[in-house]
Amino acid sequence: MDRPNTPRHFARSAAAQPLLPHASVPPAAGTGPSRLVAPATWALLAGTWLVAGLFIAFGGSWLAAPLGPGLAAGVFALLFATTLAASFGVVHEADHLAQQLGEPYGTLVLTLSIVSIEVILIASVLLGPGEASSIGRDSIFAVMMIIMNLVIGICLLAGAARHGDQEYNAQGATAYLGMIALLTGTALVLPNHLGGAGAFSTPQALGMAALTAGLYAAFLWLQMGSHRRYFLQPAAGRMAVPASAPLPVPQESEALPGTGRRAVFVRSLVLLALVLPIVLLAHYLAIVTDYGLAAAGAPAAVGGVLIAIIVFTPESITAVRAAMGNGMQRTLNLCLGAFVSTVGLTVPAVLLIGVATGRRMAMGLSGTEVVLAVLTVALSMLSFNGQRTSPLQGLMHLALFSVFGLVLFLP
C-alpha cells in the first residue's frame, strides 16, 4: 500500500483533484484566439476586408463610368480572386469546426456556409440592374452538373486509385438521392408543365418556396437528430449503421469542454468574418460579370457556372481529399449534401425575391437540360445503390459532365 506522503500518492491525488480557479496554470496550446487563428488566416482577413473597404468607398465611381475590356477584366480578376480566397478560408475554418463537432454536424456547417455564399451571390445578381431572372435556375443546374458529375467522378477515381473500392452508408446515400430527385423535379421540371412558360405564378411560387424550405428543414432536423446514423461511416463490411449502435461523440469536446467551446466560438467568428466580405463584394462582382458575359456574347447559363465555380471549388477540393483519405461517407455528405442544400435554400430565396420584386423567375429547364438532369439522377442512383464505389462509375460521371460542357459551349 502507498504511504500518504509518497510522491506516487501525491501525484495520483493531485490528478484526481480539480484545479482551483486561482491556480496559476499556463493555457493549453491552441486555446487563445491568437493560437487558434493562424497568421495566414489573419492575413487573409486583412486582405479581404481591405478589398471590401476599397470597393465600398470607391466601387460606385469605378463602375459608374463605361467599363472597358481592360478595366472590367482587372476588376473581375480582383473580385474573383478575393471571393475565391475568402471561400477557401471559410472552408478551412468550417473544416476545423467539423473535427470538433463530429459528423454530420461538421459537414453541415461547411455545406451551409458554402451554400449561403451561393445564395448571396445569386440574390445580388437578381437584385442588380440587369435582367437575370434565370440565374437561379442556371446556378442550380450548373451545381448539379459540377458537383454530381465532375466532382463525384474525380472522387470515385481518386479514391479507387488509393484504396480500391470504397464503402459508405447506403441509407444516407438513398436519403440524399431521394431528396435530389424530388426537389429538382418539382423546382426545375414541373414549371415547364404548368402553363407559365417555365415559371411559377405568384401563389405557386409562395407555395413552392414554403414546401421546399419546410421539407429541407425537416430533412436537416432528422439528419441531426433521430436519423443521424444514416450519415455516418459504417463499420467495415457493413452498408449501414444499426439503430442500436452507439453514436460517436466528439472526443475533443469531452476531454476539454471549455477549450472546445472556446475554439468553436472563435472559429465561428472567423468564419463569419470571412463570409461578410463576400456579401459586401457580391454586388460589384455581379455587375462586372453581367458586363463580361454581354461583351463576350457568352450564353446566359455561363453566369451560373461562374457562381458554381467560385462557391464550390474549395468544398470540391475538400471532398476529393476525403475520398483520397478513404472517407467516402464524408465525400458523399459534402457532395450530395451540398446539392440538397443548394436546392433547399436557393429555390425559396429565388422565388421569394421574384415575388417581392414582382418578377416571374424562370425556373424550368430546357429540354436538353432535363435530359441531362434525369441522366445525372439516374446514374447517381446506380452509382450509390448500396454496393461499393467503382472507378467505372466515376468515368461515367466524368463523361456525362463532358456532355454538359459540349452542350453549353458548342450549341
UniProtKB/TrEMBL annotation:
Membrane topology of this protein: Multi-pass membrane protein
Protein origin, superkingdom: Bacteria
Keyword annotations: Membrane, Transmembrane, Transmembrane helix
Compartments where located: Membrane
Residues spanning the membrane: 42-65, 71-92, 104-127, 139-161, 173-191, 203-222, 264-285, 291-313, 334-356, 362-382, 394-410
Record-level GO cellular component terms: plasma membrane
MF terms in GO: potassium:proton antiporter activity; sodium:proton antiporter activity
Keyword Transmembrane helix among UniProt keywords: yes
Residue ranges of every copy of the Sodium/calcium exchanger membrane region domain listed in the record: 72-224, 269-408
PANTHER family per UniProt: SODIUM-POTASSIUM/PROTON ANTIPORTER CHAA, SODIUM-POTASSIUM_PROTON ANTIPORTER CHAA
Record protein name field: Ca2+:H+ antiporter
